[in-house]
Write a structure and sequence with these properties.
Structural class: mainly beta
Bound molecules: CU-O-CU linkage, copper (II) ion
Number of strands: 32
Oligomer: single chain
Strand order of the largest sheet: 13-12-11-15-20-17-18
Helix content: under 10%
Shape: globular
Strand content: 35-45%
Radius of gyration: 21 Å
Length: 485
């Protein structure tokens, strides 16, 4: 069995293509004038598979590192138990787990368990700072269904920069039910994690964060795509059912995923768990923080090449695949994945409204951007509790995007179910109808969902957050705090 991990990742650029044409390099310098020599991207890099950690106690170390993303430059990075990104943690529903996070950086940070249902003080949000040299323990019982979640820092005002520098990893929940479905589940062989990100590299090969004021406004994007932390990722996949767990781990970029030959795939899960039935799709949109699992049938395609691309950006490749002989029985995807009761509007005790807005624009761009992005007219304040939500009570939340740009909306501590977009149920895509914790709210759109917090009340010392997951918007105020009472 081949096991590829971040630790055994060979140096990149094994076969650097030294005859890069100018057009493939354009994006490196397109937004700024770079007079010095441009750095070379490797023509291909083997897709690293994050180390899979199982058990109930996990040691995670936030640390500085360096990585050779580019063939001719070394980049300063942050990583978790490694130089860039982190391991994948797999836990089981019902287990009591302990996540021990040591901060070996020279700045404070936090680690938030995005998508997890847990006590507020274990959430790893802005109130659970870890000072340099300290270890913070998050201990809780897993009380949720199988899902592909993730972790990333969440320090007030610093989240975007710390994630951009490399701090993120997957947190997978399994349960007894999903194990009965016969889904592809051999890690790194037919169960492939894909952390999709984009970065902007300076001419000297460093990760440049917010080189222009507009990056803070629009959110930080870059023209170079990283998949599991490498540029131009390639992998071999067996000609059988293959499952991808895709995380949009980018700060701000929205992707439109599809295969280069346009073939259909089956989406099997949304952020917080399985869909009831697989959805057949030829492309799917993924905003920052969202996850999907999809399954594609590669049987009969031995010897072929295929890529996963971003249709939002001229079909830029995310992953190049060479299909090899199957090494297993070709699997069969079940017709029913899960059955769950969906709450209906009549179950809601109350409606809450969240207005996403941008302020402070009239005077033009200035350095004081901290109050530029608001929810219900207010920028995030760690000393203010915005919502007090009763436990075990269904509510309708309505999120109105009053701006001319796309945002999304993420809530900690609970999953939610979409009701409608712009008042129409059919504007909720079939692929959004599973449990969600992050939802796209396009420019001018209004989205309603049903949400209920269970199991844990919180107090003002450890509230849950709700925010836009474009990290620069979150850091600039588009976030609020809730407690469950
Ligand atoms: Cu993924 Cu509050 O964050
Ligand atoms: Cu979160
Ligand atoms: Cu936003």
């Amino acid at each position: 069995m081949k096991r590829r991990t971040f630790l055994t990742l060979p140096l990149l650029g094994l076969t650097p293509l030294l005859t890069h044409c100018n057009s493939s390099m354009d994006h490196l310098g397109s937004r700024r004038n770079l007079s010095s020599t441009l750095s070379l991207e490797p023509s291909s890099s083997i897709l690293p598979i994050p180390e899979l950690m199982t058990g109930t106690s996990f040691d995670l170390k936030l640390q500085k590192g360096t990585r050779q993303f580019l063939t001719d430059k070394t980049t300063d990075t942050y990583g978790i138990n490694g130089d860039f990104l982190g391991p994948a943690i797999k836990v089981r529903n019902g287990d009591n787990i302990s996540l021990n996070v040591t901060n070996n950086l020279s700045e404070s940070s936090t680690l938030h368990w995005h998508g997890m249902h847990l006590p507020g003080e274990m959430d790893g949000g802005p109130h659970q700072l870890i000072q340099p040299g300290e270890t913070w323990q998050a201990q809780y019982q897993v009380k949720q269904e199988a899902a592909t979640n993730w972790f990333h820092p969440h320090q007030e005002g610093e989240t975007g920069r710390q994630v951009y520098q490399g701090l993120a990893g997957l947190l997978i929940v399994e349960d007894d039910h999903i194990n009965t479905l016969g889904l592809p589940s051999t890690w790194g062989e037919d169960d492939i994690p894909l952390i999709v990100q984009d970065r902007y590299f300076t001419a000297d090969g460093q990760l440049s964060y917010l080189p222009s004021a507009m990056d803070g406004m629009n959110g930080m994007t870059g023209g170079t795509y990283l998949t599991n932390g490498v540029i131009n990722a390639t992998t071999e996949l067996p000609a059988q059912l293959v499952r991808f767990r895709v995380l949009n781990g980018s700060n701000a970029r929205f992707y439109e995923l599809k295969f280069s030959d346009g073939h259909d795939f089956q989406q099997i899960s949304t952020d917080g768990g399985l869909l009831e039935t697989p959805q057949t799709l030829s492309q799917i949109s993924l905003s920052p923080g969202e996850r999907i699992e999809l399954v594609t049938d590669l049987s009969g395609r031995t010897g072929q090449q295929l890529s996963l691309v971003d249709a939002n950006n001229a079909n830029k490749p995310i992953l190049e695949m060479s299909i090899t002989t199957p090494n297993d029985q070709p699997g069969i995807l079940p017709e029913i994945l899960a059955s769950r009761e969906h709450p209906s509007e009549a179950d809601a005790a109350k409606t809450r409204t969240f207005e996403l807005n941008m302020g402070g624009m009239m005077g033009g761009m200035n350095n004081n951007q901290s109050e530029l992005f608001t929810i219900n007219g207010q920028a995030m304040d760690m000393n203010r509790i915005d919502e007090r939500v009763p436990i075990n009570t269904w509510e309708i939340w309505k999120v109105n995007n009053r701006t001319g740009m796309n945002h999304n909306f993420h809530v900690h501590g609970a999953s939610f179910y979409l009701l409608d977009r712009n008042g129409e149920f059919n504007q909720v895509a079939a692929y959004e109808k599973g449990p969600k914790d992050t939802v796209q709210v396009g420019a001018g759109d209004s989205v309603r969902f049903m949400i209920r917090f269970t199991d844990y009340t919180t107090d003002a010392t450890a509230p849950y957050m709700f925010h836009c997951h474009i990290l620069e918007h979150e850091d600039r105020g588009m976030m609020g705090q809730l407690i469950v009472i």
